[in-house]
UniProtKB/TrEMBL annotation:
NCBIfam families: fsa_talC_mipB (TIGR00875). Its EC number is 2.2.1.2. It is an enzyme of class 2 (transferase). Pathway: Carbohydrate degradation; pentose phosphate pathway; D-glyceraldehyde 3-phosphate and beta-D-fructose 6-phosphate from D-ribose 5-phosphate and D-xylulose 5-phosphate (non-oxidative stage): step 2/3. This is Probable transaldolase. It comes from Thermoanaerobaculum aquaticum. One of its GO terms (cellular component) is cytoplasm.
Length: 216
């Protein structure tokens, strides 16, 4: 499973890339708003740091506006993936971009039926938002399970990108279900490394080693 980092913060991206486990980046308008500078500038900076896929979302909601913005975003760098909302207009633009070979990430997916449409429209990635589903009392991971099964049934090439990840268990379950990608906030990426037995084990190894050294 690929791991993307879900942030528009260039420092976090640079740091996470240095760990050697991050394959790509996803951004969204809310994440960009936190950074206080232009979307284009941020995307240019990110694309200087990585050749992996970088999702950049359109702001327009009508097909003509999304198409225009999508083309502008795709022109920033070769690794830009145009993020389009799962709406009739968004999928219309997705199908057009698919014919032209422009990579797309269909976002704000909350049901298997929506994911089926994204695959029919030729999306490169579909992003089910598991955390937001859990937040309203639904089972986000069940939606991912259904999408993976539907895509396998028909050999759709659209990649399942698990988004709105809130904790380590979301990442583990995404991997168990065979999702193609999980996009993970910086804090959760850090949490993936930790286990109390690793810390305790390391502390014990070091104290045993240094204790023995003193006796020599
Ligand atoms: C995905 O591409 C989105 O940017 C993101 O995962 C949304 O997560 P949130 O529900 O934590 O805002």
């Amino acid at each position: 499973m690929k791991l993307f980092i879900d942030t528009a913060n260039v420092k976090e991206i640079a740091e996470a890339l240095s760990w050697g486990i991050v394959d790509g980046v996803t951004t969204n308008p809310s994440l960009v708003a936190k950074e206080g500078r232009s979307y284009r500038e941020i995307l240019e900076d990110i694309c200087r740091l990585t050749t992996g896929p970088v999702s950049a979302e359109v702001i327009a909601t009508d097909a003509a506006g999304m198409e225009r913005e999508g083309r502008e975003l795709a022109g920033i760098a070769e690794n830009i993936v145009v993020k389009l909302p799962l709406t009739p207009d968004g999928l219309k633009v997705c199908a057009r971009f698919a014919e032209e070979g422009i990579a797309t990430n269909v976002t704000l997916c909350f049901s298997p039926a929506q994911a089926l449409l994204a695959a029919k429209a030729g999306a490169t990635y579909v992003s089910p938002f598991v955390g937001r589903l859990d937040d309203v009392g639904h089972d986000g991971m069940q939606v991912v399970r259904d999408i993976v099964e539907i895509y396998q049934n028909y050999e759709f090439p659209t990649q399942v990108l698990v988004a709105s990840v809130r904790h380590v268990q979301h990442v583990v379950e995404a991997a168990l279900l065979g999702a193609d990608v999980a996009t993970v906030p910086f804090k959760v990426l850090q949490q993936l490394y930790h286990h109390p037995l690793t810390d305790a084990g390391l502390a014990r190894f070091l104290s045993d080693y240094h204790g023995a050294q003193k006796l020599q």
